[in-house]
């Protein structure tokens, strides 16, 4: 299962590349304590420490360019329509992820400019033309050289601890809240979203203590089933809804290499992995069908009981893989309904 820090290219991905991108998307949950540190707003501005040093934001920003995943959602939810965003994986034909497009259209009456894709790094010319007073790229692979060039355009906040690692969705929200001089609203958004998750959990007591595995579909000819670890956002959100991670999680953690957020389970060992439910995503519905038709996988408890949810739709996969205060409102109603159906033996496989 390859892991890449390559810059994402929206709607240019083949289905195989989309599956490979799973490793990039998982990074959302890789750090439980990776949030930025920031001084309170003062006459000298807000200072945010990050992987490339520190950034001072001298006054409340008004023209924000939000690069990569997640940041545009948080900026919009905090009360500012970004002047520009990058087109990302999971965006529709319009170039916007559906929940973001719906929100900014309703809230601001217009959508931001989509920054044209640049083959090598950020599109500096297009960003400069937008005259930003803040550039955010917390879920990105901005290098130190790219950071320096972006900082010449406007104060820039890149990733906090490492490339493609924004921390949790809560940390992302509070960090951007600090950068936007909107700490209180950021805290409110986190609380509101946590309460939304809790409300779904209370409405579905049947989720409590049901074990699950979150993973990927099989590649053709594959002999390992990819599974995500306990700090992955998909796993965390599913646990927050009342489910319990498989008892095999300790084994998963012991076999993971380096700082990866996933590992592989040999199909030979799959029957020994305890789970009432399997949730996954893949590059296409055909991959989902291929996975559940595999003889070994088909005999595994959650598949044998038709207790599985497989998202092959890019927007849905992106919404649950890189969650934000906007994408969770978009995906949770369907995700919760699909989980409930799966426990009743009504599986889901969607996508093209």
From TrEMBL:
The Fe/B12 periplasmic-binding domain covers: 63-343
Q: Does the keyword Signal apply?
A: yes
| GO (cellular component) term, any one | outer membrane-bounded periplasmic space
- GO terms for biological process, alphabetical: iron coordination entity transport
Please state what the protein is called.
Iron complex transport system substrate-binding protein
The UniProt keywords, alphabetically, are: Signal, Transport
Q: Where is the signal peptide?
A: 1-32
Q: Which domain of life is it from?
A: Bacteria
Protein's cellular compartments = Cell envelope
User: What PANTHER family does this protein map onto?
Assistant: FERRIC ENTEROBACTIN-BINDING PERIPLASMIC PROTEIN FEPB, IRON III DICITRATE-BINDING PERIPLASMIC PROTEIN
Under the heading Pfam families, the entry gives: Peripla_BP_2 (PF01497)
What is the similarity comment for this entry?
A: Belongs to the bacterial solute-binding protein 8 family.
């Amino acid at each position: 299962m390859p892991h890449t820090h390559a810059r994402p290219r929206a709607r240019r991905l083949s289905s195989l590349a989309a599956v490979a991108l799973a490793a990039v998307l998982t990074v959302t949950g890789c750090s439980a304590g990776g949030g930025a540190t920031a001084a309170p707003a003062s006459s000298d501005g807000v200072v945010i420490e990050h992987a490339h040093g520190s950034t001072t934001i001298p006054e409340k920003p008004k023209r924000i360019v939000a690069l990569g995943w997640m940041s545009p959602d948080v900026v919009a939810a905090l009360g500012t329509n970004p002047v520009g965003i990058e087109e990302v994986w999971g965006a529709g034909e319009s170039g916007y992820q559906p929940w973001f497009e719906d929100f900014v259209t309703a809230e601001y009456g217009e959508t931001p400019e989509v920054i044209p894709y640049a083959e090598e790094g950020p599109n500096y010319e297009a960003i400069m033309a937008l005259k930003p007073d803040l550039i955010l790229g917390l879920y990105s692979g901005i290098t130190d050289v790219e950071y320096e060039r972006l900082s010449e355009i406007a104060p820039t906040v890149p990733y906090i601890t490492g490339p493609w690692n924004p921390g949790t969705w809560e940390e992302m929200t509070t960090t951007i809240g600090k950068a936007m001089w909107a700490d209180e609203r950021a805290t409110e958004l986190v609380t509101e979203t946590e309460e939304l998750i809790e409300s779904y959990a209370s409405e579905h007591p049947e989720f409590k203590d049901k074990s699950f595995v979150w993973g990927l579909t099989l590649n053709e000819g594959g002999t390992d089933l990819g599974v995500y670890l306990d700090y992955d956002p998909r796993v965390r959100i599913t646990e927050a809804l009342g489910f319990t991670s498989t008892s095999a999680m300790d084994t998963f953690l012991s076999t993971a290499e380096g700082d990866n957020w996933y590992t592989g389970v040999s199909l030979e060992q799959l029957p020994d992995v305890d789970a009432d439910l399997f949730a996954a995503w893949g590059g296409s519905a055909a991959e989902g069908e291929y996975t559940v038709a595999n003889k070994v996988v088909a005999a595994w408890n959650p598949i044998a009981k038709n207790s599985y949810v497989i998202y092959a739709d890019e927007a849905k996969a992106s919404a649950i893989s890189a969650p934000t205060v906007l994408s969770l409102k978009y995906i949770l109603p369907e995700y919760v309904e699909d989980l409930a159906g799966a426990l009743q033996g009504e599986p889901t496989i969607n996508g093209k």
